Amino acid sequence: MTVSREDYLDRFLDAVDSVESGNRGAISEDRWLVENYQGSFLPVVRIYIENGEEAVSAETVLLLASARERAVYPLVRDLSKRGRDSVRMACTGYIKTMEDDDELIPKLFDRIEHSDGHEFDAAAAKLAKIARAEDMARVRRTYGQVQGPMRMRMKEVIERIILRNPSMEDMRVFYLSVPVSPDEKAFDRFLTRSTEYLDVRYRSSVYPKSTVYMSAYNNVIDALMKMRKRLYNESDNLQYYDLDKSDRFDELSELVEWASDDLSKKTLLRDV
Is 3 helix (H, G, I), strand (E, B) or coil? Predict the structure, then answer.
């Protein structure tokens, strides 16, 4: 369960006050601050790297190293050259942590992709703590290939990546949708059914009206989301299909956007 921004920042600011009062380690050694960190908290936390007193700045860098916050890497690299003594040391530790992770991540993927049981669980748990935004595609590939508890482990990796990278939040529902293996016949059926649903049924029964009942609205919204998820998960498979599938993929994508825009302009009516 994630903590609220208010709760996190209240505890962080209390830790800042504590460090300023001479209690070293109040920020960097607080496991709660590490475990509950989210990338969306960075705009406030970052202030104390650049504008805090030396001890606060150094401990904040160490906190972000433990939380695997990579967005401050350029700033930390700069401060490692011009910061005050303890800040430079903290920055060096941060950079070493990220470099070690870069070496470890491929090894964790190898264990995840070629093991199961305890070894899989241990590798996935570690990857959840350190995986980067650019690892999402490979994480999702394994996510789609495993089942049961192993899939839940990979779901946790995906969710932790998103927490560290708030710009990915808008795509959460797609990242957590299950990837599909290439199956041209199944994709062809999906394209045919979906295109008919929008270009024939929706166009004839919903599009001409300025109002729509809530039940019909919800049904269409659900159908559009299912189409979006399937299109998202088939995009990488197009390279294995005949060229006409790419054209039909684009056609359906345009229909989905058209129907979504049209639906958003209608007046909703309560069901009788």
Answer: coil
Predicted local confidence at residue 50, as pLDDT: 86
Into how many domains does the chain fold? 2
* Integer CA distances (angstroms), 253 to 108, 137, 160, in order: 36, 21, 29
Cα 206 to Cα 38, 174, 192, 211, 267: the distances in Å are 42, 26, 19, 8, 12
Which residue, 189, 194, 163, is CA-closest to 176? 163
What is the average pLDDT score of the chain?
96
State whether 100 and 206 are in the same domain: no
Average pLDDT over residues 133-141: 96
**Domain check: are 147 and 237 in the same one?**
no
Residue 87: count of CB within 10 angstroms of its CB? 23
Whether residues 168 and 211 fall in one domain: no
- 144 and 215, same structural domain? no
Q: Which of 122, 123, 114, 75 is nearest to 98 (CA)?
A: 75
The residue segments making up the domain with residue 196 are 184-269
Q: Judging by beta carbons within 10 Å of its beta carbon (0-12, 13-18, 19+), is residue 70 exposed, middle or buried? A: buried
Q: What is the DSSP letter of 68?
A: T
Handedness of CA 247, 253, 256, 257 (dihedral sign): negative
Q: 203-243: per-residue pLDDT in tens?
A: 999 999 999 999 999 999 999 999 999 999 999 999 999 99
- Per-residue pLDDT, averaged over 171-199, amounts to 96
What is the pTM assigned to this prediction?
0.88
For 147, residues 6+ apart whose C-beta sits below 8 A from its C-beta are none
Q: Are 205 and 261 in contact (CB under 8 A)?
A: no
